[in-house]
Amino acid sequence: MRPIRLELENFTIFRGRHSVDFSGLRFFIIQGRTGAGKTSLIDAMCYALFGKVPRHGDRRDLHEHLISKGTDHMRVFLEFSVRDKRYAIERAVRKGRGEVRFWEGNKLKNVKANELPELVKRVLGVDYDTFTKVILLPQGQFDRFLKPERPQQRREVLNKLLGVDALIEKMAELIRETKRQIENRLESITASLRELSFATKGELERVGKEIALLEKDLNLLEQEKKKLQERLNIASHRDRLQEELTECQRQLTELLKKAEEMEQLERELQVMEELSSYAPYVESFKSLSQREEQEIKEIKSLREKLAKLSHQREQFQIQLEKYRQEWERLGEYDVQIEQLTKELERLKNALEKHRERNQKLKELENVEEEIKTLEEEIRNLTERIDRGENYIKELKEKIEDLEGKQRRLLELNPIKIKLDEVRRERESLELLKKEKELLEAQLEEIRKDIKEKENSLIRFHVEHIRAHLKEGDLCPVCGNVITQLPPAEPSENFETIKRELDKLKALESEKLEKKARIESELFALEEKERELRQLLNEWEGEERFEEEYRELQRSQAELEESKRKLKQAEEKLENLKKELSTKRERLSTSEGKREKLQTLIKEIEEHLAIEGFWEVKEQNIREKQIQLKTLKDRRDMIRNNYTAISEQLRNVELEEKKVQTALSERERNIQSLKEEKERIAKNLEPAIKKFGLGTVQELEKLIKPKEYIERLKQELEDYKRNVALLKEKEQRLKEELK
Length: 738
Prior knowledge:
Layout (H helix, E strand, L loop, with lengths): L1 E10 L2 E8 L16 H13 L11 H5 L6 E10 L2 E10 L2 E8 L2 E3 L6 H9 L3 H8 L5 H6 L4 H12 L1 H33 L4 H57 L1 H17 L3 H44 L1 H5 L1 H138 L26 H42 L6 H70 L6 H73 L5 H7 L3 H32 L1
Antiparallel strand pairs: 1-2, 1-3, 3-4, 4-5, 5-6
Helix pairs in contact: 8-17, 9-17, 10-15, 10-16, 12-13, 12-14, 12-15
């Protein structure tokens, strides 16, 4: 990769717009003091290519660390070439949102941000990790390389930076694969040599001549192929350059069609930039006009409000005169209300005592009913407790009997285990007997084979002796002269006979050992049967023992059930006793409550007799309450209305004065705003006359926001840059095509 041009805007310490041109350099050094931004230039290239930088890694808030302090946007543009083909990448962040653009040649590609890393990897031939290890040495690694803590550390760092470990692994795999290919080729050659081992010398010479002729033809064909391939490469390169030139000219034509439009845009930008100096005056004039309109609306509203307040003041004065006579008679109302209140209080007290007496009588009746119910419940609980104690006594006796049976069951458990073990092994006994019979039959067959092999061995020795005798020799058996030798008989090889005989004897020994082991197991099983019969003498057989054992097991379940019932019964009895104690406490409390209620009822009756209100009707109280309420309502209505109207009248008069003051203030403000507008309009007269406008409002329409102007300038600059790039590329392609 070769950098051509780098543009920065608000990237780390590079505040504002900056550009670095590498196009005329074949070798360069970035030099400067500490903090001057050398590393930031390298970071900018890495960020443009991969969207991240080594010193910040994969941080989620990466942009916050890269954007210059005090700015809200950032832009990095990198133009570079790979194998004489140009590319460009632009990354920008505006208002927290990232934007990415990618050019191949002068053609803008539609590429998403998440697709760009893979595209850059295909173009450069390396990914981010390899780029930062091999091409861009990260900060901190260089010092570790020059000053290692131990000699081996330099090699470790170098291997890590250059990816040598992965390279060694790949080379090892390549060596293994090459070794396999060589071995396969060697095997093929060896097979071919084996096939040629029977060829004659004349045949080999003929084949050698044919091979020499074929190799000569092959060399001629290879040379012709090389020439044709070179011509094909030149033609392909020419066609590719022609296609690039055609595409470049097409793009350039499309851009030049917009030349007049861009020139018009450039003129408009000049006007916009010139008018932008008048923007503060126009903004002030606009603000003053808005304030003037608002003041006019406020004056209109205040005048309407003043007329309304004047009408309200007159109405309140009429109402206040209406309530004045009633206000002077409020003392008479207070005396009547006080008398009615005292009389009503005595009636209420008497009625309350009657209600209290009736309530206590009802409570007394309920308490007596409760006492009767509690006495009945206590009798029932006492009877249930007696029955529960008898039931628990019976359960304890039953449990004691069942526990005796459990002790007997524990005594029989070893015999039961022995019986189960013998029953399981009885099946093995029959299998062992059958296996013993099979082994005896196999031993018989093996012994026959051994006998036959021993006879074969004797015949081999006889034949061996016969082979060394001739007619006229003495017989080694009888000592007579041999007149005629018996005919030779074919015999097996001695080693074969001996090997087979050894195998048969080893098999015989193995079978005998297995038979002895089976006989030992049979003896042990028969011994266990005898021991079991001795243990079962008491029960006259296994069935009687099993019957008693099952009976004892059932008693175990019954014992557990009886214990569970005993525990439940004891808990229930304890609850009944607690409930009985609670009922007795409640009975004692209810009896005390009954005595207290009787005393209170007697005191209330004595009080009513003294006061003389033995009989009071609620109708009398309601009549007094209605009369009292009517007087109070009338008094409160007069007092409240008179006070409220007086207060409202004062508030209206105060509000009327405030509105008059505010109205005068607004009228003075309008006069000041008009004078200020006239002063600003004089400052705007040169611009209005220069551009042939009639009013400030027309001038305001021509003034554009700064962001809008900057965006148009960026579009114009991009257009000019793209035209220059395309013209440069067109010239380069034409020269190369020549």
